[in-house]
Amino acid sequence: MMSRVSMPPIERRTVRYPIDRRTALRGGLLAGAAVVGATAAGVGLTGCDSSPSPETLLAETLVPLVRSARADESTARALVSVEPAYATALGVVADQRAQHARALREEIIRLDQEVAATLDRPTTPGTASTSPTGAPPAAPSLARLRTDLDSAAGQARGVALTAGGYASGVTGSVAAAVTSMREVQLA
After folding, report:
1. What pLDDT, on a 0 to 100 scale, did the predictor assign at position 139?
2. How far apart are CA 170 and CA 58, in angstroms?
3. Is the pTM higher than 0.70?
4. Triad 167, 168, 173: Cα angle to 5°
């Protein structure tokens, strides 16, 4: 059997510090002044920082992907009547690219409302009806759509590798789907 060792009781002492009312008020005023000063300095520092937030920057990198998806959808729908042998595949491409545009737009809205508001504005005046050389845009072709899809997949892949979190997953999925469309649907 184990024997118990008896320990003497621990003596507890209450330490009292003599603080008079004047000292307590002075300490409270100093602490309050420190909080106000720190808050004012913090507001001043953050008020001067006009650089965009990481969310804004990420949203801005997704904007070209939305515009590309919309353009690919429009081209695929226009080609349905021109390329009857690929009509079903072009319908799938158009539907998928429309879903990509919606998913990317929702992510942009989640990240930054102001950037999302720019999605419906044209990139530059006159680009919808003319090419950079001033000539009317070329008629849509299957070869051009394939090239555009390759470009869109590469662009989405690049964003997926640099973005983090949900945006990385969405853009990675878009890149994989677009590559699949290009290699399988439009082969």
Report:
1. 80
2. 13
3. no
4. 100
